């Protein structure tokens, strides 16, 4: 529980920074890592049917989903710092981070 709480706190801090960035800069000109294009390409190969504007928690947290997410994340070990940390996701990208609109993905 303590490790998950520390992940959640770090994820919240990252979410604040990233939300401020994407709110102040046109996202098409924003790179968060040096390998954003590679990550997105691999993401789209692995999750080609995943709707990303409004997320379904079941598509992120179910056992079949975890079987796909884990290998996806592991390919970035040594490439992306904190590649396997949890992250806060807005379920509906058109809304702010709120308790009802946020899920912790790990």
TrEMBL record:
Start and end residues of each Polysaccharide biosynthesis domain: 3-104
InterPro entries assigned to the protein according to its UniProt record, in alphabetical order: PBDC1-like_dom_sf (IPR023139), PBDC1_metazoa/fungi (IPR008476), Polysacc_synth_dom (IPR021148)
GO CC entries: cytoplasm
PANTHER family reported for this sequence: PROTEIN PBDC1 (PTHR13410:SF9)
Protein name (Swiss-Prot/TrEMBL): PBDC1 protein
Organism of derivation: Casuarius casuarius (Southern cassowary)
């Amino acid at each position: 529980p303590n490790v998950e709480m520390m992940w959640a706190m770090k994820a919240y801090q990252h979410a604040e920074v990233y939300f401020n960035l994407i709110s102040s800069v046109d996202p098409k000109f924003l790179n968060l890592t040096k390998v954003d294009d590679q990550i997105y390409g691999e993401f789209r190969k692995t999750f080609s049917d995943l709707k990303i504007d409004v997320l379904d928690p079941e598509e992120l947290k179910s056992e079949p989903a975890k079987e796909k997410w884990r290998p996806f994340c592991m390919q970035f070990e040594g490439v992306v710092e904190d590649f396997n940390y949890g992250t806060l996701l807005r379920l509906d990208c058109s809304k702010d981070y709120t308790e009802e609109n946020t899920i912790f993905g790990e």
